[in-house]
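Quick review question:
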């Protein structure tokens, strides 16, 4: 079976520890995913499920922050059920819209970890999408921001 560079590095580190020696430097990064939602975004539940289920070698999902303003009760009920099953999901509810900038600032305040990934509530993403973005950031420390390319169906 072919190993990725990250898997080989983890194996090398484990082997070195077993021998009592030093290993190549290995760092596991952590991140938060921030989502702003208003109204009734039809793909929000799918988005949350995809984000929470994503596995990203070398990266640990600390928290998903959902800031919801004037969001339908059906949408919020589903999100609350998910938060009850997964403590990484933090929901901040606003009864009225206070603007996207305010919602993003709340996400900034709640962020934990090395990186923040912002995703629109109506986005449909692959389980690998976040890993690709994070890996790009990790490989270029001078990079302060990265964005995916939207694809319109």
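Suggested answer, residue by residue:
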């Amino acid at each position: 079976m072919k190993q990725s560079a990250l898997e080989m590095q983890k194996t090398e580190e484990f082997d070195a520890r077993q021998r009592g020696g030093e290993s190549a430097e290995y760092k596991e990064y952590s991140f938060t995913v921030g989502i702003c939602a208003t109204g009734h975004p039809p793909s929000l539940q799918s988005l949350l499920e995809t984000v929470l289920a994503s596995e990203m070698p070398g990266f640990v999902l600390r928290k998903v922050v959902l800031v919801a303003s004037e969001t339908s009760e059906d949408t919020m009920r589903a999100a609350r059920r998910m938060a009850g099953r997964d403590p990484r999901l933090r929901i901040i509810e606003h009864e009225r819209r206070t603007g996207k900038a305010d919602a993003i600032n709340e996400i900034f305040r709640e962020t934990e970890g090395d990186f923040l990934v912002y995703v629109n509530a109506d986005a449909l993403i692959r389980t690998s999408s976040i890993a690709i973005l994070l890996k790009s950031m990790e490989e270029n420390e001078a990079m302060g921001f990265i964005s995916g390319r939207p694809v319109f169906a």
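Why it works: The beta strands are 29-39, 59-71, 89-94, 115-120. Residues 5-19 form the longest helix (15 residues).
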